[in-house]
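User: Hi! Is it possible to get a structure for several chains at once, not just one? Here's what I have:
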Amino acid sequence: MAAAGIKNQMASRMMTSMLNMRNSVFMLAMVLMSITNAVAQTHTHHHHHSDHAMSLDVDGMTMNSNGDVLPRDCDKVTAEIEVEVRVGRQYAMRGFTFGFNNHEWRVPPCSRITVTLINEDEIRHQWMVHGLPRYIYSQGMFHLETSGGKRRTGTFIVPSDNVTYLVHCDISHHMEQGLKGQIRVGTGQDSLPSIPGISGALYPDKY
Ligand SMILES: [Cu+2]
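Assistant: Yes, the chains can be modeled jointly so their relative placement is included. Here is the combined structure:
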């Protein structure tokens, strides 16, 4: 009995210290999140809640969704664009494993774009835009991520420049396997290389 009592005591001590560890990890995450929010707030100078830098649940993630902070070079939102992006193997072009239902989206300068990513595969995919202004979007990124069979919606506002932005899925090898696209703002710049169905490789393979 005495031995069992000691064992129980040890077990409960271990449990307590494990719970403490979990709490500290949780606290650390909370502290990091509030630092991130504080930084985001200082950089964007807006005063409504910017605690939506990232929303995360079992179905996926939305990062840097922004429906109301205007890029500095925009006086107003010029157009509301709604885009439905479907992703999955059935959209793969010849020679690729995966695909989006479109690989190019054309939008006006200073437009507000609401994207719904619908994942028709059974594995995780992303729709990630790069090169947006860092004073609004941390790392210049807008990012949707969905688990297999799920959907995710988010909003961002593009600046006034005629720019072609890269869109891709950053999961290992998915871009090379077909998940690369582009957003052309206004007249855009030249097409990015290797956009399935749109542009050739920058350095074509020599056979
Ligand atoms: Cu993917």
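Residues 42 and 125 are 31 Å apart (CA to CA). Residues 125-126, 169, 171, 174, 179 surround copper (II) ion (CB under 6 Å).

User: Great, thank you!
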